[in-house]
């Protein structure tokens, strides 16, 4: 569709282990009016594993289907041809590593007043001093730096430090780095269909959508449970305090259930275990007689009888283990006083009955599954579901100019050599 001086086309693509989602929206070219979703494409994923492209051709087929479905629906809505030329794309997986980055510089202005140059120098110092645990260039490259509050001397400043008096200025960021090979492969996949793309950390896409306003200022933890990966983000004082990603998701719960119940290693058995998982409900199981069993087979002679309580124990143990891993990663941030708004569960795995109950018990924080009250008013009712939060968050991010996708050939000023070539390929 030709660019309109009055209208902008926004797109977000979430490529997960179990499904690929592309959403298209329109918004006024100027002003702050919310976007309007006009196209959606949902396809079963293939070739993706825990945020990494394993089979490029299989992943390409799923992405092509999702984009095509979204473009056709948008074309019907606008009564014009729609061909996406840009999109934001979620970035997730255990290959992501993160760390707090700080840089302190002396204030050299007249009478110790913080100037623009002091702010720029402190920010640059923080990024240059970034040390991502386990990352050795060129295996990992920085993807994004989330700004945190400045410190003027020893005092935290919520706003702009310019004009304040101090002997020193400290800039802080929460930095996220990604494996360069994973980035290049994912960029190549999306580049087959859409020229301009930009990556957004998946947890930030979901978290910034569901925990805007007071929740982000007060302190809230958003946990996105996907099929292959679980991402989380802690928002506090309106800033990103911490992010993380674990190679554990709903698919692993199903496989553990298959193993725990000693079911055959077949696709049919996996589908039955998936069905059991989706019907799992701790409240119901607690009221179930201890002798109750579940039959696996064709309901004839030779069926395997499995105690229902065993099913409950396996699923509860695996979910609790997942939340314990997150709790450990939170470290000192796990203090309930720092997270007064509690926990929001999202992603397809959040639909598992009892997940919120187990999370609340593990974290010791009030927990809920993302619902209608958490989604902005512009989100259509049929998309107000946890499994669409990341893709919807991309549309919200695309609305801001600084996050608009840009050509893959664009490179940050000053980059050279191998990093320059990589950034050109993946469009960062």
Write the layout of secondary structure elements.
Layout: E1 7-15, E2 19-28, E3 36-44, E4 48-49, E5 52-53, H1 56-78, E6 86-91, E7 97-106, H2 116-128, E8 140-152, E9 155-157, E10 168-179, H3 180-191, E11 196-201, H4 202-210, H5 214-218, E12 220-225, E13 230-236, E14 239-246, H6 250-260, H7 267-279, H8 282-286, E15 293-296, E16 304-307, H9 308-330, E17 343-346, H10 355-363, E18 367-369, H11 389-398, H12 417-426
Parallel strand pairs: 1-6, 6-11, 12-17, 17-18
Antiparallel strand pairs: 1-2, 2-3, 4-5, 7-10, 8-9, 8-10, 12-13, 13-14, 15-16
Distance between the termini: 25 Å
Radius of gyration over all CA atoms, rounded = 23 Å
Low-confidence stretches: 406-428
What is the domain tally?
2
**Main β sheet profile:** 5 strands, mixed
Label the structural class. alpha+beta
**Structure summary, number of beta strands:** 18
Superfamily (CATH H level) name of the largest domain = ATPase, nucleotide binding domain
**Helicity range of the residues?**
25-40%
SSE arrangement, N to C:
EEEEEHEEHEEEHEHHEEEHHHEEHEHEHH
Average pLDDT score: 85
| CATH architecture label name of the largest domain | 2-Layer Sandwich
